[in-house]
Amino acid sequence: MKLFTFKQGVHPPYKKELSKDKPIQKAGIPEKIVIPLVQHIGAPCKPDVVVGDAVKEGQMIGKARGFVSAPVHSPVSGKVKRIEKAPHPLGQDILAVIIQPNGNGEMAYMEPMGEKINKLDPTSMLSHILNAGIVGLGGAAFPAHVKFSPPRGKPINTLIINGCECEPYLAADHRLMLEHPDDLLLGAHMIGKVLGVKNIIIAIESNKPDAIKTIDHAAAHGEIVCMVTETKYPQGAEKVLIKALLNREVPSGGLPMDVGVVVSNVGTALAVCEAVRDGKPLIERVVTITGNAVKYSGNYLVKIGTPVINLIEQAGGTTGTPGKFIMGGPMMGIAQSSFDVPVIKGTSGILILKKEDYMEEEHRPCIKCSFCVQSCPISLLPSTLSLIAEAKKWGLAEKYGVNDCIECGSCAYVCPSKRPIVQFIKTAKLKLQEIKAREKK
Amino acid sequence: MENNKQALVLSTSPHIKNNESVPKIMFSVILTLIPAAAFSVYQFGLYILLLCVVSVATCIVSEYVVVRLRKRPFTLTDYSAVVTGILLVMVLPPGFPVYGVILGAVVAIVIGKQIFGGIGYNIFNPALIGRAFLAATYPVFISKWIQPRIGIDALTGTAVADALSSATPLASMKFDGIGTPFISLFFGTTGGSIGETSAFLIILGSLYLISKKYIKWRIPASIFVTVFILGQIFHYIKPDQYPGGVFHLFAGGLMMGGLYMATDMVTSPLTKKGCVIFGAAIGFLVIVIRLFGGLPEGVMYAILFMNAFVPVINRATKPKIFGTWGPA
Questions:
Q1: Where does the pLDDT of residue B168 fall: very low under 50, low under 70, confident under 90, or very high at 90 and above?
Q2: pLDDT at A28 over 60
Q3: Chain A partners of B320 at a C-beta cutoff of 8 Å?
Q4: C-alpha–C-alpha distance, residues A301 and A27, integer Å
Q5: Distance from CA of B10 to the nearest CA of A (A)
Q6: What is d(CA B67, CA B257) in angstroms, rounded to the nearest whole number?
Q7: CATH 3.40.50.11540 spans which residues of chain A?
Q8: CA distances from A122 to A125, A155, A196, B113 (A)
């Protein structure tokens, strides 16, 4: 079988065997739930409750502010204990609603719309998606309703449901495809209907043959096509994936909709299904907890807002000396300084590595080996960019396409000088933004 | 959980890296040069070993001194100075005096590498800078070749007894019109530089490096193709004056230069297209110098000359960035 793929990229050790065969378990409800008011790209939410309020499971507690924003909900019934700044996976302390669960199980879901695709109205589906606070669950957490309402000038003809899960270690999407194929296909149909798109593709990497079989079987009589991609990183990056499947190139600085495509994660499709069919807001998600410093790797259905430390306890605690705690996968995830951070909508994995498991050494000068050049899926010159950024020549960095970088980390992964190329590139991007902001004034 | 209080490392993604490293690459280069060096010791005697030790030691000491003076981080652990030391000896004639090797090694490290800022920043191949300096300083020694298996006095480096100084195959071809059988070129039973005589062992070593992607294979490939084709063309034009393509490939320093010198990562292009242009230009220059220049051999100058163009080649062959069309 011909596998869909892209040029260059890397083959990191996948380490999926730690978690891929562990069925999704329901995680326990912790003593406190921390719901940050920013869990998406866009404007922060406005708290809709005050300290002391009783809240129900599924009740909206933070209102969306503006179009590019997404509301947040209480994942449990309980009481609002505090509204204060709390540690957030993105690094800063961010205003959060802290809830003490009471175990009553009182629910306040939205009106269920049923599952008869033909009878569903796209406009009310879209408002359900908005009110459910659904964001892209692949990691970027872009508000789903924004993605699903492209401007008039951008007709969409293809929907890609992304089940590649190319990040090593993670298996949440894999388990979800195995255990909820029908729900996620229904979700895909719903998104397709909202977008008015008939052409729906589910993309899965070849290293998940069981998921491919399951989805193929479930989709046998529908219009959805399952396309198998080569197992190569970063196959699941949307620009790369669109090129691999459809041979369309998202223009520099553009979005998938510029080439008539919307890409959504499989988890997002499932969340859409539950929101539309059952009226359930996005209050829980599947998270892989793994790494060799975790006693029992596994996949959990976790209430959003559960502090990571509670999840670690459920996974049997840590073994050895944890050296690095990463939210997300090892290639693009964010290193955390404490286990107090909560699981948020964009958390696909909790990865804890032992101290001896990763290399943190002084980086050496670039020796121009060009390994990074041969691995960059965007065809940048990462080595040159890192030198330019090191020399603080921001304007030149822009000329060399620094803003086109998708920060997949392939370059730094292969660098024999262990240069923090992604860090150099991120710095250059930030500096360019600052310069642009200053010029506007 | 107490673990919570433990220091967790914070750094930017990616959090995993593969196991390639600069020391590993340099060490592999050293390893693959050993067969050719050992063969040379067999051919020319223990004096070669002495030269190797002196050259490597001088390179290490020079690097240490300069790094200390510049108060820069210690770089000896990357083995690159050792590589330069070995490569320098490999491209010198077997009877080269010890003091000359010391001088060449100092120049290679100090002027060839550290003046530019150390590893990664040098424009020219350091070992070739060392050799070029010696070629200018000791023009007599640099062109004094010894017939293999005759032996050199282990202490003085002079050929013992009635050992004849022999011309290299390229020189005999150029100045006397005498050819050398292909088989002795390939296995190295002929006059030439220390490491250059046996094409076979050099190719063997480099194949390992190519398999590990430590050599940008497009460079030697395009050098060899260009040299062969151009050599062949001139051979057809004047068969009695110009040797054929195969002779050009295996004579002189082409194998050593094409596989180990032109492919020095630091001083070669980043892009695939750039490597092809770089290699083809070197191949062209080699033929031009060999056939029409005043020297019998031109590999060193061809590579050094093209080293200077690497930044230009990199800029000219910048790949098309994903999602862009037309000139970047």
A1: low
A2: yes
A3: 379
A4: 6
A5: 5
A6: 28
A7: 3-16+112-278
A8: 5, 16, 8, 67
Provide the token pair at A135: 């964001």
Q: Are residues B133 and B225 in the same domain?
A: no
ipTM of the complex: 0.87
pLDDT of residue A16: 93
For chain A, percent of residues with pLDDT exceeding 90: 82
**Rounded-to-integer distance, Cα A300 and Cα A285, Å:** 8
pLDDT average, residue stretch A370-394: 95
Q: Among B109, B143, B177, which residue terminates a domain?
A: B143
Domain membership of residue B209 (yes or no) is no
Fold of A3-16+112-278: Rossmann fold (3.40.50)
Measure CB to CB from residue A322 to each of B8, B213, B270 and give the nearest one.
B8
Does residue B15 belong to any structural domain of this protein? no
Contacts B16 to A, Cβ<8 Å: 12-13, 168, 330-331, 358, 413
User: Which of B111, B143, B175 delimits the end of a domain?
Assistant: B143
Asked if A418 has any chain B CB less than 8 Å from its own CB, the reply is yes
- Which residues span the domain enclosing B139? 22-143
Residues 239-278 of chain B with CB under 8 A from chain A are 265-272
- pLDDT for the residue numbered A362: 77
Same domain? For B132 and B48 the reply is yes
| Chain A hits for B18, Cβ within 8 Å | 10, 12, 413-414
CA distance A388 to A53: 53
The mean pLDDT value for A36-48 works out to 90
The one-letter code for the residue type at A165 is E
> Once rounded to an integer, what is the mean pLDDT over residues B12-37?
91
